[in-house]
Recover the amino acids of this structure.
């Protein structure tokens, strides 16, 4: 018999032309409840809001213990987002975030000391958990903006006027 390893936790099974996976539930539960696995917990934390700034601030807060940094910046000209948290420092790691050739923007982390290879590897794993929550928040913001403007003229519509009136009256 084989001892459980990461290679044999999931075993493909061919059944009636369909492929299924057999997973030992005790091993899967142990992996999911491992409190040291920040990578497993991070997606759930990031999907609690549709606000781009809140997602990025939460991401920075959650990874700072394992990948210390003084600054996190996210810039997306296409989506009109320019978020900066902290003061920029000398050493940086910058990534262009894309999903299926759709560009989300550029994420940059900086600090006063150079990032090690292990920190960069860990950072890249963390960034993989950021893509979809960030994309969902950007798409939500685009939908909200599109709903308040006339598509032909770009001028605010009646809904935008009502919102502006209520804001001004308050």
């Amino acid at each position: 018999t084989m001892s459980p390893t990461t290679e044999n936790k999931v075993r493909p099974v061919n059944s009636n032309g369909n492929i299924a996976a057999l997973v030992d539930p005790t091993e899967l539960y142990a992996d999911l409840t491992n409190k040291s696995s920040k990578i497993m917990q991070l997606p759930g934390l990031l999907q609690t809001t549709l606000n781009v700034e809140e997602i990025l601030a939460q991401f920075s807060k959650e990874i700072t213990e394992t990948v210390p940094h003084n600054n996190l910046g996210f810039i997306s000209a296409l989506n009109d987002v320019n978020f900066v948290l902290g003061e920029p420092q000398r050493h940086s790691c910058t990534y262009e975030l894309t999903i299926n050739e759709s560009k989300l923007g550029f994420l940059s982390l900086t600090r006063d000391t150079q990032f090690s290879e292990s920190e960069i590897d860990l950072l890249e794993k963390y960034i993989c958990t950021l893509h979809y929550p960030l994309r969902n928040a950007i798409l939500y913001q685009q939908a909200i903006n599109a709903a308040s403007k006339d598509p032909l003229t770009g001028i605010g519509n009646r809904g935008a006027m009502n919102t502006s009136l209520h804001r001004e009256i308050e």
Summary: Residues 1-23 have pLDDT under 50 and may be disordered. The chain has five helices and six strands.
